[in-house]
Amino acid sequence: MPSSKRREGDGGVGTQIDFAGWQVWWRGIEFDVWQARYFDPIRYSYVVQSHIIGRSPQEAFPLVVPPSTSSSPILSSASAADLLILEIAAWNSEVRDAILVFDSGYWQVDRKLWDSVQKADWKDVILPTPLKSSVRHEYRSFFSSERIYKDLDVAWKRGVIFLGPPGNGKTISVKAMMRGVANGEGVGKETKRVLYVRSFHTYAGDEYGIKQVFERARREAPCLVVFEDIDSLITDNNRSFFLNEVDGLEDNDGLLMLATTNHFDRLDPALSNRPSRFDRKYTFPDPNKSERRQYAVYWQDKLANNDRIKFPNKLLDEFAAKTDGFSFAYMKEAFVSALLILAGDETNDLTFPRELMAQVAALRKELDSDK
User: Fold this and answer.
1) Which part of the chain is the AAA+ ATPase domain (predicted)?
2) Which of 66, 80, 127, 198 has a 20 to 30 Å separation from 315 between CA atoms?
3) What pLDDT tens digit does each residue of the chain (371 aa) get?
4) Chain centre distance of CA 170
5) CA nearest 185: which of 125, 128, 134, 121?
6) Residue 353: how many CB atoms within 10 A of its CB?
């Protein structure tokens, strides 16, 4: 099997089982497990059959189940093999170190997104202090307030929208929230499931996709459900179906829904102006002068150990003054471009302050032209 990346080597050897048998011991009981893989010419596909053969009668199995499930007809009449299968299925359905993503018509485990989310930290998120505190409070208070919602006879569900121009911290804030929820931040380290929706499209249409999303969300509740770029997810054809699911014709207890949009004006008023669906809207504006200086300080700290980079304090104020109207994405581009120019300089004649401000000037022309 070739490597996924050439730099990782020539690849390795994979194993495919066509016919095999194992002896399995589980809770003191012995089983034979057989597996066969063969080509079915009628289906024109490969078929895998697995057989579990129990050597011990049901009476020999020391059945111990929690009180809440002891009356279950499935468990009370289950054989040892049945319980083995249930335990394997429960273990196999656990999502470990991954985010469940709905895309291309089905749920899939995304470990790359999980890795990206784990790198997001609120200390790296530069926002106005009230906004940052309010956003963090949203998920902390929601998952710890079930009893309060019930006592007030209010449905335990909530919807939040992050809106504003691109490049101003929505994405990293979403990832920081996902990390906080997944790691149990603020709720006694009690982890919650995070579901991420990229598209509703399925072979059976958007309505089927929406149904799949909410069925899984209700099954995983309490959980966080993230709708990326909701203005592109909701169309005239699927809008009413989505609204019905959000309104909770079925039980939506425990669902915290987070949506993002760069084009709030494109959202249907039934979503944007209906508190019972998406209760709060948080605007991520272009950073002010203080926040632009704070972002420059972030880069100054990041480059502090680089002997080639001289980053004087006076550059902080100059940068903040010259970047009015810049988003965080634009400011990042200025720093990255300046560093790349320095990396390719073999004469050592270039200086970081001069190149940084040259990039700011170039981006200013681009920004003014776009406006």
Assistant:
1) 156-288
2) 127
3) 888 888 888 889 988 899 999 999 988 888 899 999 999 999 888 999 999 987 655 544 544 444 444 445 445 556 788 888 888 888 888 888 889 999 989 999 999 999 999 999 998 888 888 899 999 999 999 998 888 988 888 889 999 999 988 888 899 999 999 999 988 886 666 778 999 999 999 988 999 999 999 999 999 999 999 998 998 898 889 988 998 898 865 688 899 999 999 888 777 777 777 666 788 899 998 899 999 999 999 999 999 988 888 999 999 999 999 999 899 889 999 999 999 998 887 777 789 999 999 999 999 998 887 66
4) 13
5) 121
6) 16
Rounded CA-CA distance 245/251 in Å is 9
pTM for the structure as a whole: 0.75
Please write down the HEC assignment for all residues of the chain.
Answer: CCCCCHHHCCCCCCCCCCEEEEEEEECCEEEEEEEEEEEECCCCEEEEEEEEEECCCHHHCCCCCCHHHCCCHHHHCCCHHHHHHHHHHHHHHCCCCCEEEEECCEEEEEHHHHHHHHCCCHHHCCCCHHHHHHHHHHHHHHHCCHHHHHHCCCCCEEEEEEECCCCCCHHHHHHHHHHHHHCCCCCCCCCCEEEEECCCCCCCCHHHHHHHHHHHHHHHCCEEEEECCHHHHCCCCCHHHHHHHHHCCCCCCCEEEEEEECCHHHCCHHHHCCCCCCCEEEECCCCCHHHHHHHHHHHHHHCCCCCCCCCCHHHHHHHHHHCCCCCHHHHHHHHHHHHHHHHCCCCCCCCHHHHHHHHHHHHHHHHHHHC
Cα–Cα distance measured from residue 369 to residue 371, given in angstroms and rounded to the nearest whole number: 5
According to DSSP, the β-strands at 255-261 and 223-227 are: parallel
Q: Which amino acid is at 288?
A: N
- Is-contact 258 225, C-beta < 8 A? yes
